[in-house]
Amino acid sequence: MAFCDSSLDETTRVRDLIRRLTNPEKLFQLTNHGAGIRRLGIPAFEYWTEALHGVAHSQGVKFGGDYPFATSFPQVTTSAASFDRHMWRRIGSAVSTEVRAFHNAGRAGLTVWTPNINVVRDPRWGRSQETPGEDPYVASVYAVEYVRGLQKGDDRRYAKVAATCKHYTAYDMDSWNGTDRHHYDAIVHPIDLAETFLPPFQACVEVADAQSIMCAYNAINGTPACASHLFQTDVLRDAWGFDGFVVSDCGAINDVYGNHHYVKSRAEATAVSIKAGCDMSCGNTYELGADFALLRGFMRRKDLNQALERIFRVRMRLGLLQPDDTQPYKDIGRSQIDTQEHRNLALEAASKGIVLLKNRVSTLPLSLKPEQQIAVIGPAGVASTTLLGNYQGTPPFILGPAEGLMKVVGDGRVKVEKACMDGVKCEDYSGRERAVAMVQEGGVGAVVVAVGLDLTIEREGIDRKELTLPEKEEALVSDIGAELKASGKPGVLVLALGGPVDVSNIPNADAYGAVIWTGYPGQAGGEALALILAGKVSPSGRLPFTFYPAKYVREVSMFDMTMRPSPTNPGRTYKFYKDIKSVVAPFGYGLSYTTFSYHFIGAATGLSSHPPSANALQPSLSLSTRQLCPHSPCSHGSLVDDAQTGVWMAVTVTNTGEVASDTSVLAFLKPGSAQGEGVSAPISQLVGFERTGVMQPGEKRTVMVFGARELFALVRGGGERWLLPGSGVVTIGGHAYSGVSEWDDNKDGEGGSNGEVVAHVPLSITGDEVMVSRVPWASGRREQDIFLDTLIYS
User: Fold this and answer.
1) pLDDT in tens, 292-346
2) What is the DSSP code string of 735-789?
3) What architecture is domain 348-548?
4) 283 φ/ψ angles, rounded to the nearest 5 degrees
5) d(Cα 55, Cα 95) in Å, to the nearest integer?
6) What is the dihedral sign for C-alpha 725, 728, 731, 736?
7) Helix (H, G, I), strand (E, B) or coil at 224
């Protein structure tokens, strides 16, 4: 049979297979569980495999027997806080190896429904922990690196697994104020689509070549995402060139008629979604609705066959549907799960992602006498699956803060008291007296209080109501804080949760000399934290989102999708939130045990694939639109590409302290004057980042940071990016608000500067206005009138 012959071209094979299928056989291939076809020798195939930060429990994954566990890397927000793009790819590669091992044992599929690259618009979103954070550029880079890590293996002919970028698009609300994602219609302006919500998906398709996209539950400007021809065909396929398959989120096709009431029946929902470009239904809606849709003429057989072509192409790209002895990666097995290399990588990722938010008078690293003990108090202080975050698998082990400290400083030097006996909600705070007594013990030299959230408070289906800790956890923080003040002992507050939290209003919170955010740090998170507490590793993580004040939840509705400020919206993310003075900690913030200085050397325009020589560097950031767009018309691309035009910035980084440490160099554009109408510039815009590697005290290192041309452009109301003549400042080093007048630099480090000497480089751009990015729906054939009519402002 021709479809089994891997020497033939893909199209010939796919069409040969489809012409052999009966109509019932075709219908059973449109669901996440592709039925086997015995007469053709085609085995059943389960498409639903989760691998967000490791092989995870899902319909297509079976833990047990010789495969009882898989490596659990940190939740995505923690990995994102490392700003280490190379590590993101290494994690993807490790995860795909373990997925292949499970698959070869018949325990997993090969289409993994990851990564989640939705931008965190609102800090209440329960799934923010799954994402790379609030910046579209970071999310784009993460998408490219993680997808390439997943898909690219040693055999370049075949994908190792097929990645699925989700949830397309404008999805970042699960359940708030009586409305859930199954009913929500996200009203989104073109400027926010182009600037915030679409870029990660464009990078996922155009650059990473993801083989699958998952459409979201919500509607966008009146049209359910999975029924949108505009987004699934005009944008995704026609503008970006996507040639994989689109799968609905589970049950989303039912929502098209049952909750959004876009059409009246299952058959109509099946037809409108398939014709719009959604090829597979997670769930049985297509399986039940397609036959009647064909019978009633809602769709044609060629629509069905086109969906099947896209699905089977991806299976062939995985090396499936061909003889067993030609299967790629068939030798990956049990020995490649939970390897020492993967364990080391999980520890590295947690160590690089943990963020030090406060370190007053050098509370950390802990300095104790040999006979002194460390008290670990709080519900997040001991090992539990809470430290893994959602979409978790079964790890080979979990080390919490207490177990990590026991491993690093010795069992006999760590005392433990949960205090909150029922977990982070702390409704059973019966351990209070024991916790207070432990702090008072003479042998205790330091106290670590570990609190946070869990999946009963923030996860898929549950958005947060507040940006504070549960009430009884706050009581614990306050009670132990009072004892720290009385005893004078050093205290460390550890925050284990997926998003931001404001602890500034808790009584006695100022008693803690150090505050650390760990996110959900995975199986090795406790050891990573212990290494930092003990001073064996210097913290180097930076926040991938803004720590808003607690009042933020009362300042704006979760349903307001706009990013820029308005009378009912204070603005969203570091780019647009206008109340800078109230921010608890800004995007990109993170302290170290040492100090760094940054000195700008020079800059040169060129391609991201070709760093300039030292001789090519100019001593200033004086650019022209012609340099950035040397060809007319200017080519239009995503925020990330292998060979895109932009600005290389060379900076000397010096470790000016006394401790060896790694750090991430972040470069931010602070737009000043820009000549042109319809421009609403952000307060700050990340234009590039790079990791230095561990630097010894006194060491100098030249770091090259690349900023894509598109990131120096400003977005107009219609969604197009324009390079405009004008001026500004690029800060290299520091965080999003370094150099912003409204930010009080004395807040850095909570009581003192974090010691970073940031480079402030004047920027000037001369020349004519040039469009560098068109809106991808400019040639849209359907929904366009509806889309334009539903704009919330023009």
Assistant:
1) 999 999 999 999 999 999 999 999 999 999 888 888 999 999 999 999 999 999 9
2) -TTTT-TTS-GGGTTTTS----B-EEEEEEEES--EEEE--TTTT--SSHHHHHH
3) 3-Layer(aba) Sandwich (3.40)
4) 110, -175
5) 7
6) negative
7) strand
Contact 317/211 with Cβ under 8 angstroms? yes
Q: Which two tokens stand for residue 573?
A: 């993310």
**CA–CA separation, 202 and 141 (whole Å):** 11
Other beta carbons within 10 Å of 382:
20
The pLDDT tens digits of the residues spanning 621-672 come to: 999 999 999 887 887 778 999 889 999 999 999 999 999 999 999 999 999 8
Is the domain covering 596-773 a CATH 1.10.530.10 domain? Answer: no
Number of CB atoms found within 10 A of residue 575's CB: 23
Calculate mean pLDDT across residues 254-283: 98
Secondary structure of 260-321 in HEC code, one letter for each residue: CCCCCCHHHHHHHHHHHCCCEECCCHHHHHHHHHHHCCCCCHHHHHHHHHHHHHHHHHCCCC
- Rounded CA-CA distance 419/416 in Å is 9
Quote the CA–CA distance of 661 and 553 in Å, as a whole number: 36
Inter-residue contact 299 to 275 (CB < 8 Å): yes
Rounded Cα distance, 614 and 87, in Å: 27
Tokens 């009362």 correspond to 554
DSSP assignment of 675-729, as one string?
-SSSB---S-EEEEEEE---B-TT-EEEEEEEEEGGGGSEEBTTS-EEE-SEEEE
Whole-number Å distance between alpha carbons of 444 and 243 = 61
Rounded Cα distance between 411 and 403, Å, is: 8
Single-letter amino acid code for the residue at 744:
D
Three-state DSSP at 377 gives: strand
Top-tier CATH class for 23-336: alpha beta
Question: Residue 147 has which token pair?
Answer: 């997808």
Q: How confident is the model at residue 103 (pLDDT cuts 50, 70, 90)?
A: very high
Provide CATH 2.60.40.10 ranges for the chain.
596-773
pTM recorded for the entire structure:
0.96
If you ran DSSP here, which 8-state letter would residue 43 be given? P
CA nearest 263: which of 219, 207, 327, 213? Answer: 219
Assigned token pair, 406 = 């026991």
pLDDT digits (tens, 9 = 90+) for 396-445: 999 999 999 999 999 999 999 999 999 999 999 999 999 999 999 999 99
Q: Is residue 787 over pLDDT 60?
A: no
Q: Is-contact 532 81, C-beta < 8 A?
A: no
Identify the three-state secondary structure at position 100.
Answer: helix
Catalytic residue list: 249
Tell me whether strands 514-517 and 355-359 are parallel, antiparallel or unpaired: antiparallel
Residues of the chain with CATH 3.20.20.300: 23-336
CA-CA distances (angstroms) from residue 455 to 36, 72, 397, 572?
A: 36, 16, 19, 24
